[in-house]
User: What shape does this take?
Amino acid sequence: MPHLNSVFHGVLQHLPWGEFEALVERHAADHGQRGFDSKDHLVAMLFAQFAGAMSLREIETGLHSHVAQLYHLGARPAARSTLADANRYRPSALFSDLFTLMVGRLQRSQRRSLAEATLLVDASVLPLPARSAGWARFSAVACGAKMHVVYDPDADQPIYCAVTAAHVNDITAAQSMPIQAGATYVFDLGYYDYRWWAALHQAGCRIVTRFKSNTPLAVIEQREVATGGGILSDRVGLLPGRQSHSRRNTMREPVREIRVRHAGGKVLRILSNDLDAPAQEIADLYKQRWAIELFFRWVKQTLRIKRFLGSTDNAVRIQIAVALIAFLLLRLAQATQKAVASPLAFARLVRSNLMHRRSVAALLRPPDPPPPLNLAQLALL
Assistant: This one.
């Protein structure tokens, strides 16, 4: 019978192993390591994501039960103490740089320019155990990390991620994000900062967000809107001269206020620096913001990053980076077949067949029956 690699092997073949080895060298990630190199580490953490393993012991047991399949991957199992040490000490930048590299390759393969993209910016809090208090405490009784993401809804993928302690403000993390000149940025009230808006505006970006309820607008133009629709008003004006008593407003260009009645009856004041697009287009762009909420839910529930394998800053960063790498790998593997259209259904099939010897394209096909016994084999029964 022809040899078949596992589904896990089929998914991991989309990793840029050559570039990964270059990153290992750049970060000296294997310096001083004995017997458990960066590839072993990455494979073990991806196994945990795809298999839904919730503890180091579960990862150890799962990997040791599939030594033959790991051999064909060029990887080795590890004891839980070895994996714990790797999560604590191997530089998390190795894995975050691998994620960034894969995003760049995907963008080139899709032949899309981010200057034409709509990018959603948001953050999600991830609860952590009390033993993470040394770096992640944000209240007297709770600890947590925050995942700051820039998400491309048209490509259905994150393009940037940063991890901070949960007490770090969203806008503080956003100010360190790279700005894609010409792109459309959609975000909510957590990023209410005139200085950051001015930086986006100067880069030729379109901004779509919400006004705070107490922010006045010095109206210079009132535009007509269709009666009976969801758009209640469309006005152009200037923001206040100061965002606070100690902060001068650098966003001095005219902005637009579009008042929209939400499906639940609530009226939203949408802000944009685009003075030319139809009001409905601006309103529809703001609606796309919910796609990043769905992304956060999908990652937390499907890739199981609500529970962490380590408590240190480095271990948490590694697990989040690997979860995002796993997300990209699932998208790449799903694109090689046409039988399963739902990303959630495909992820579940990969999980249930992870170490089975079959191709990714044949996940829905029943396994081949065993060959018939010959006469000599029948005589032994």
In short: The chain has a mean pLDDT of 90. The radius of gyration is 25 Å. Residues 206-286 form one domain. DSSP finds 15 helices and eleven strands in the chain.
